[in-house]
Amino acid sequence: MEVRLPKKHELRLYHLEALKGIKEEGLTAYEKIDVVHKLTGLPKDKLRDASLKDLTNLLNHFFNLIASIEKETPSKEIEVLGKKYTLVRKFSEMPMSWHIDRSVFDLKDLSIMLAFCYIEKGMKYAQQDEHKNILNPVMKRAELFREFVEMEHFVKISFFFQKKAQNYTNAYMEIEKQRTKKVDIRSTNGNELLV
């Protein structure tokens, strides 16, 4: 079976989404066909004629590409179809409209998450024209990002938020541990004080 395998810079969000639901136990034969179909666009009937070895090699290629993405800090700027988008560095400095919108959108959708994190260079969030029309809507950016942004940016932003959440969880757990820790302080007359 002849298949042109993508290079890392050619991976997009749909490649990552095709791998959702893969279990640790592995994939059944039908699930392998389905995942490879989603990754490559090859017809399922053609994939049914492929060998198990070929399908496994294709899957391993994608897993290795994704694993090779460095989980570093998100890029300060990304370019999509010749237009530059700047990373929102401080959420606390964003307008309230950004926070309201963010609270109603499903941020589990990585294209929407990325659309909140990157704004057109030189523009404000939800910038309006003289007729109060929004010039740069979140969903328009999300659709554009879904189709054209390299997977690497989705992985980096996702990893960044996972790391932040883990840091907050760790800090919270440490505070709770310290708060519930009983400190035995004895006064000179033998009375105990538990704090």
Proportion of helical residues: 40-55%
Query: How many domains make up the 3D coordinates?
Result: 2
State the separation between the terminal residues, measured CA to CA.
70 Å
Strand tally: 5
Strand order of the largest sheet: 1-2-3
So what's the overall shape? globular
Mean pLDDT: 86
For the largest beta-sheet, the strand count, sense and barrel status come to: 3 strands, antiparallel
The oligomeric status of these chains comes to single chain
Q: How much strand?
A: 5-15%
SSE run: HHHHEEHHEHHEE
Radius of gyration: 24 Å
- Unreliable parts: 184-188, 191-195
Helix-strand category: mainly alpha
Summarize, please:
The protein has helices at residues 13-18, 29-40, 44-48, 52-67, 96-104, 110-117, 138-148, 151-180, and strands at 77-80, 83-87, 118-120, 184-186, 192-194.
Folded structure, characterized:
The protein has 2 domains: 8-67, no CATH class; 77-170, no CATH class. The protein contains 8 helices and 5 strands, in the order ααααββααβααββ. The protein has helices at 13-18, 29-40, 44-48, 52-67, 96-104, 110-117, 138-148, 151-180; strands spanning 77-80, 83-87, 118-120, 184-186, 192-194. The strands form 2 sheets. A 3-stranded antiparallel beta sheet has the order 1-2-3. Strands 4-5 form a two-stranded antiparallel ribbon. α2 (29-40) crosses α4 (52-67) and α6 crosses α8 (151-180). Mean pLDDT is 86; it is low at 184-188 and 191-195.
List strands and helices in order, with pairings.
Blueprint: H1 13-18, H2 29-40, H3 44-48, H4 52-67, E1 77-80, E2 83-87, H5 96-104, H6 110-117, E3 118-120, H7 138-148, H8 151-180, E4 184-186, E5 192-194
Antiparallel strand pairs: 1-2, 2-3, 4-5
